Amino acid sequence: MIIDLRSDTVTQPTPSMRVAMANAPVGDDVYGDDPTVNQLEKLAAELLGKEAALFVPSGTFGNQLAIMTHTQRGNEVLVGDACHILMHEVGAAAVLSGVQIRTFPVLDDGIDVEKLGLMLRGDDIHFPDTGLICMENAKSSGKTVPLANMEAVYALAQSQNIPIHIDGARIFNAALALGVEAKEIAAQGDSVNVCLSKGLCAPVGSLLLGTKKFIKKARKNRKLMGGGLRQAGILAAAGIIGLTEMVSRLEEDHQNARYLANRLEEIDSCSVLRNRLDINMVFFTLPESVITESTLVAGLLEKNVKISGQEDGEYRFVTNHGVSSDDIDWVIESMKTLVSRYS
Amino acid sequence: MIIDLRSDTVTQPTPSMRVAMANAPVGDDVYGDDPTVNQLEKLAAELLGKEAALFVPSGTFGNQLAIMTHTQRGNEVLVGDACHILMHEVGAAAVLSGVQIRTFPVLDDGIDVEKLGLMLRGDDIHFPDTGLICMENAKSSGKTVPLANMEAVYALAQSQNIPIHIDGARIFNAALALGVEAKEIAAQGDSVNVCLSKGLCAPVGSLLLGTKKFIKKARKNRKLMGGGLRQAGILAAAGIIGLTEMVSRLEEDHQNARYLANRLEEIDSCSVLRNRLDINMVFFTLPESVITESTLVAGLLEKNVKISGQEDGEYRFVTNHGVSSDDIDWVIESMKTLVSRYS
Amino acid sequence: MIIDLRSDTVTQPTPSMRVAMANAPVGDDVYGDDPTVNQLEKLAAELLGKEAALFVPSGTFGNQLAIMTHTQRGNEVLVGDACHILMHEVGAAAVLSGVQIRTFPVLDDGIDVEKLGLMLRGDDIHFPDTGLICMENAKSSGKTVPLANMEAVYALAQSQNIPIHIDGARIFNAALALGVEAKEIAAQGDSVNVCLSKGLCAPVGSLLLGTKKFIKKARKNRKLMGGGLRQAGILAAAGIIGLTEMVSRLEEDHQNARYLANRLEEIDSCSVLRNRLDINMVFFTLPESVITESTLVAGLLEKNVKISGQEDGEYRFVTNHGVSSDDIDWVIESMKTLVSRYS
Amino acid sequence: MIIDLRSDTVTQPTPSMRVAMANAPVGDDVYGDDPTVNQLEKLAAELLGKEAALFVPSGTFGNQLAIMTHTQRGNEVLVGDACHILMHEVGAAAVLSGVQIRTFPVLDDGIDVEKLGLMLRGDDIHFPDTGLICMENAKSSGKTVPLANMEAVYALAQSQNIPIHIDGARIFNAALALGVEAKEIAAQGDSVNVCLSKGLCAPVGSLLLGTKKFIKKARKNRKLMGGGLRQAGILAAAGIIGLTEMVSRLEEDHQNARYLANRLEEIDSCSVLRNRLDINMVFFTLPESVITESTLVAGLLEKNVKISGQEDGEYRFVTNHGVSSDDIDWVIESMKTLVSRYS
Ligand SMILES: [Ca+2]
Ligand SMILES: [Ca+2]
Ligand SMILES: [Ca+2]
Ligand SMILES: [Ca+2]
Ligand SMILES: [Ca+2]
Ligand SMILES: [Ca+2]
């Protein structure tokens, strides 16, 4: 068996999901006829406190669909520096929606609301209109954003009639870490995107949520983007189990992440980024002089452990449904052996 | 039970597909780790005679991904008049790829190759470059395009170094009607898109096929468009059955279509468009003076028969896996009753 | 001296224009401070019967700015087949505005309004919204469109709340040919684009006209497209003379075109397209077997006559301010000599 | 007479420019026939040390044309924070070119080359390709970038085969401030944009420069963007004088800027941003508690002095051809009066 720490996207559908998928009643969702998709969308809307939901093929799809639906060609979209939309969505917003992305800093205690306020564009022939603000919680960096900070940002946005989209790919992780309900986070924006295929273990899919009017418009844009699926109830069946049975399980991943962080610190040269250890992601540095990236990746693979290479000089290990505390012990022992062999 | 003639997209996954989906080994396909997706892509490439294949969420996604991957911003894309890309993909090519669509006529005996040749843009500062030609076979109109005509178009395109994309949403229907192998049709272009969720009954998905180089580039553009799925092997498992077990079944749909056409002609005022009766789609007219569209749609629905309203003054009935010849008899008797009641 | 029949864009500014340009009071038009630009825009608005006008760098700029300002990303724009926007603007609408172009036929007696009505998109998830209809008068083909036909199209568009843009690059030529006021043509749409640098002889520029609200929005989009000029009053000064002194002169060009057509028919193998001889453009065919395109172009150039090569098998000779009836005699004699030498 | 400190774009064409414009030989530049445009492009290419040049309607046009010509749809373009392309071009790059903008910090001593290096995108399915890096010199902030810093950035870019575009709207101001030739700055990139209508006093236009191959491609894209002008030699004639006679005059503007800075500091609450006082732009703060923005703007206007409101809390006064040192004295006395009246 492989221990896969690259991401929580690697999670496998659970046995009960497989049964549900095999038995799901389905219909053609482009016609609105799939009962299982409809059930999932209804369930998600209730759970996240939004009027309506829309099943989409991926998290990137959900974020980009939100951008396309909120904005007009030529708008400026404000996003946090280093967020997924800017860094890991292949530059899609400019291609698909013709919008300019500009970044605001997100600090350890959240977004500087005053600075953000200064970034909103006034009425000037040289300026694009500010069409959307995006917040991410939990952030790609592993940190959460305090609810009060999100509230302050949303208040600012509403005062200027600028919509807010929340990238809540790991909203349930964020809610757990912050000790709030997911719907309290979702309430801080006009739309929110939620992933089913990460910690929740569904094989495929995300949900975009918002008002009925917004989701109606998004449904058409989803078709434009090629995301109108047919008998998608197969996937939705697993999503329903994800939302109803798997949310409470995320606590394990968070505990395992803290355990992994502690054990990594047993390795002298490992420096864990403790200030970003909020959810199921452990970021740390390990100098190339101690062990090179390629040696570590290849060495662990020989021990049946898959990790990603560094990004911006940091390793990221992600705990997930397929990783137990015993697995973590195995990873640490393997790393110790490798480090001692090469240093 | 509903008899659904709106499209062959309404097909349900078969029992063996449900078993296969429940048991499919899966992995994270964004990392290239899903064995079932990999198996489907390999199988499809062999079957269609292309170097490589890529699983995508829908037919619209596959066509638009092909356009994005073949072209550069500002190119002109030549497509047949009334084709799916122009008429039924929400204007996506302009939004997603920034390309101008221009149409060439497709006549009953195929594309006028000489006229098409005159439409290729020369070197002039006022002209966009011709970046792509799209052919559709079978066409959305129900007609097939002769293989020799496709060969002539491809020869022209190759002589000018212009790539060809084939919208083969119903390529296996076309092959059956033309009495050729699907790969012979696929050979008339640089890329081809094939749907799994229509007559082949898989719940979700299409395949885009082409050279390894093209598919590598398309894989990245698929991520940009939000079509990078995770444990997509669930869906691919059904697709494999579609390609291996369901292709030969299409003959039934074609026979049923001809049977449906014959029986429709029993209704005096029904005029079947016989010259487009090549595959599983029956187009016909029925004057509003005899029975209005809304009356017919609602009246049949009461009899558990779902049909679409007219488009451009024509009704389209599509035979599919869920429609037997007995069902067709029921449809015809219901229509006769309705027509006699209202006229 | 060269006789230049390639286009009426080759016209030179007149001596009085040069004086006016040398003496024009100017200011920074991005700030709205250029009195001469303001005067031109006011004058044009009055002349064409629109609320407001905007000076733009070119006819292509004006048309594309209208498209950008009327539409939203993803709209469908209906244009006449073979119109300038489709054929000679480098595919710009898809790039700049993300809109899909679809063509309606324009016949000798104008647009088939019933067919056009069927092309307007209904409410369907597969359809882009119809965002704009463009008419061209005079057409690039040399023909005018009857005013009554334009009225019928505008009535249709207004009944569906779809805006109309008129490409009036040669609107004064059209008005002359139709025996109406230019403002009567301009009244058949929500916006109109008018060229100053063709028959009117201004060196640079066009005007986009519409409601105040539309022009305000267009002014910002003009900046986005890089068309915010500074001391543009220099050019506007010539434009004012174009509008006030040069419109009546177009009659000469029309007479010369008819004279040229008559004389071309003295050449046996010349076939003038008489049904399109409405304005200052003479289209004709001359078989390659009689004289090849390259021979004709080069041979005339030796005689100081500049012509364009064929497009779609037709030659186009355009009369303009720099072409007198004596010049036409010289052209015909030169052609006769060349044809007799080579045939 | 108005004293206009809003920008150096407000400069008027000089008397010799007006004479030159009145007498310029012109032709249709879309056909390449305008001798004066050709002369200007040749002259500029020599002066800036590039193979070829292209006359464009504005600085925004030139920058956006460079972006369109260097990049492909979906690329990421790296620009300095607070640069003109990001802040003052209406978000055009996303609309016109479909590219994502990402910012690198530009500090007082220039660009952090190491950090910039880390921003170049590697080969990953989540990443857009880095398609272009833009440098600005002089910067919109009033500062220049040291030549050695530009060289280091260009070396990095060349090592990764990434093109560099230089926004040299005020390249001659930068050259003067740095004590180098403008062509030495232009040599630090593959393309450069130079404005004629600012300190150089031409009424309209900029120049985009690069290799012959690049400019050929840009010429076609210029047509797409609507910037193909006809008898543009009228404007080019003024541009020639700008390049040949007005460059040396910029020294006056720089001296006046320093004089203005000194005098502003006589006003107690005025705080001049001395570290950005490199060219003809003086940035300073003046607290709202001392005098409000609207009071200052309106009060100076009554004294025939035009200034812009604050942007990001700063006033910007720009010296230019129409502003003498006596004018500056008048401005300062007027400000003193206003400040004392309201505080
Ligand atoms: Ca998963
Ligand atoms: Ca440690
Ligand atoms: Ca199906
Ligand atoms: Ca002219
Ligand atoms: Ca004749
Ligand atoms: Ca100026």
Element string of chain A (H = helix, E = strand): EHHEHEHHEEEHEHEHHEEHHHEEHEEH
Largest sheet of chain A: 7 strands, mixed
Number of helices of chain A: 14
State mean pLDDT of chain A (0 to 100 scale): 97
CATH superfamily of the largest domain in chain A: Type I PLP-dependent aspartate aminotransferase-like (Major domain)
Computed over alpha carbons, the radius of gyration of chain A is 21 Å
**Largest beta sheet of chain A: what is the strand line-up?**
2-10-9-8-7-3-4
Tell me the domain tally of chain A. Answer: 2
Number of strands of chain A: 14
Distance between the termini of chain A: 28 Å
The CATH class of the largest domain in chain A: Alpha Beta
The CATH architecture assignment of the largest domain in chain A turns out to be 3-Layer(aba) Sandwich
CATH topology of the largest domain in chain A: Aspartate Aminotransferase, domain 2
Query: Helix share of residues of chain A?
Result: 40-55%
Given the helix and strand composition of chain A, which structural class is it?
alpha/beta
Family (chains A, B, C, D): Belongs to the threonine aldolase family.
Protein name (chains A, B, C, D): Low-specificity L-threonine aldolase
Enzyme class (chains A, B, C, D): lyase
Cofactor (chains A, B, C, D): pyridoxal 5'-phosphate
